[in-house]
Amino acid sequence: MSTSLSPLFQPIELGPLSLKNRIVMAPMTRTFSPGGVPNDLVVAYYARRAENEVGLIITEGTTVGHKAANGYPRVPAIHGEAAMAGWKKVVDAVHAKGGKIAPQLWHVGSVRKEGIEPDPSVPGYSPSGLFMPGKPNGIAMSQQDIDDVVEAFAQAAADAKEVGFDAVEVHGAHGYLIDQFFWEGTNIRDDSYGGDLVARTKFAVEIVRAIRARVGANFPIIFRFSQWKQQDYDARLVETPAELKAFLTPLVDAGVDIFHCSTRRYWEKEFENSPVDGDLNLAGWTKKLTGKPVITVGSVGLNTSFVGAEHGMEMSAQAGIEASSITQLAERLGDGEFDLVAVGRALIQDPEWVIKVRENRLEELQDYSKESLMQLV
């Protein structure tokens, strides 16, 4: 292993979570679970990444036990006897290969459209019945609806712990339900769940607290958040470090152990005009402001041509899979800007990505193609 890449392969202890290296498999929806039940193909898919030395696997989004949680066919559930039996097979297979795994707990909110399983008649649920600012879809949640969803997340976390998962991740990013409560444009409630940014964290805080009460003090809770939304890539929750701290503090107080800071390009600095630590990305600022461990993510391992085409602009070579880009990533990790690095599409493309990087076989890393998303194992 190249000395310059060694920070990526240092073990780390995050409370009770002991990881062999700093590389995380990012959650990626694949729709390979008919009826919401993970099958043998799903078992093999995750076991193969564990066998190839991914430090922590975060599963694709798994829908909690609320009637409107799902927004896509063939997405795995994290509730019900059959789904939990399927997940136990996944967990056991990952552990047998020496890996660690956490499910991502998910409710899509107003992204849901009528006609989607499991009950096609159920509309989307969201804080104010909005898919995006000024565009309604579904219904605004009542207090009972909010209570039901909080309970669904808590039960999902308890069930995940019961079948042997090593942690859970709460999906609070990308314009799905929890993020819809954060986003000013989709949360126009006039009760205690609306108002300023701190007030709009109340729903997420209740979910985290309920999970913590159910899983105990020593079970890690990861929380994923983002500025951007799938409905609006340019959306921003905060514009300054002070606003970011105000947003994160209630989540820390509720019991979040690790923040997963989702950006579309990890190498970009978060606040252009900050006179102090101006080059930090979102994960770097989150760690600085909270003192909590953080995961950075965003186009890690993607080639320059793909990133440029995907986003319609020229991108730095730092976005590519050249030796210099991986080295720069490792240097930032080694400098303590962030603690873990999540790799997404590159790990679908190549299950051996971690080993190839560790062995400095970067010339063997393949260009990402969208067709690889349909790869079974």
UniProtKB/TrEMBL annotation:
Extract the InterPro entries matched here: Aldolase_TIM, OxRdtase_FMN_N, Oye-like
Q: Which residues form the NADH:flavin oxidoreductase/NADH oxidase N-terminal domain?
A: 8-362
Alphabetically, the GO molecular function entries are: FMN binding; oxidoreductase activity
Q: Which GO terms describe its cellular component?
A: cytosol
- Give the domain of life: Bacteria
Q: Which CDD domains match?
A: OYE_like_5_FMN
Under what name is this protein listed?
Answer: NADH:flavin oxidoreductase/NADH oxidase
